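Problem: given the chain below (254 residues), write out its structure.
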Amino acid sequence: MSALLNYKLEGEGHTVVLIHGLFGNLDNLGLLARDLKTDHQVLSVDLRNHGLSLHSEQHNYALLAQDIKQLLEHLDIRDAIVVGHSMGGKTAMKLADIAADRMRQLVVMDIAPYAYREHRHQQVFAGLTAVEEQKPTSRSAAMAILAEHIELDGVRQFLGKSLYNCDGIMAWRFNVTALKANYAHIMGWEPITCCTIPTLFIKGGDSDYLTAEHQSEVQAQFSEAKAHVIANTGHWLHAEKPTEVLRAIRKFIT
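Solution.
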C-alpha cells in the first residue's frame, strides 16, 4: 500500500480533481484551481515522484491511478470531475479504467491514450542530471546549469519551480532517477477497456501530442469523447491560455 499523496483541498461544492504533468506539482494547474474553487471543491495532488509525495522506484499508470484512487477513497470523494494534463491526463484516463464509480466526467488536456515512441525530454533530463551532479549552492547557479542544456527559458522557469535548498545544496523535488528509469512507461500506454464516462479532450492547436492520427485510439477507448481545440497554443495550453481552457472546461461540466 502506498503512502497517501500530498494534496491540497480548497473551496466547496462538487469536487474537481486536478492532476499535473511530468516534472510538475500541485501548483501547476493553479490558474485553473483559483477559478474553479469559487464554486467547486478543488483537489490538487502531487503525483508520486513529484512535489512532496512519496518517492518510489516504480512509476507507471497503474500505480499513479491507484495512488489517486486511494486518496479519493480516503477523502470519501465520489462523482468527481477529473482534469489531467499530459502525464496527468494519462493518469486520469487510467483512473477512469479502475475507479469509474468515483468519476462523473473526465477532461484530458493535450495527450492521447497512445504510446508515444519518440524521446521528447532528452535535454531536460541532461539538465536535471547536471544540476544533481554539480550540486549548485544557489538557485541562480542551478538555473545557469540548466541553461547549458535547455534552450527555452519557459521550460527552465517551469523546472525551476521544483528546486529547493537541501542542506545548502539546490535539489529537485521530483525523483529524477525514477522518472528517467521509467520514461518508457511515462510515454507508453496500455489500452483500456472502452470507457463510457463523458470525456473532453482539449488540444493545443499547435501541439503534436494529440492529432488526427490518434482519433481511432481515442474513439476505441472513450465512447463518449468530445474534442475542443484551443487555437495558437502549444502543449502548455493551461498556462498559455487559461481563460480559454477554463471556458471549455466550464462549458463541458455544467
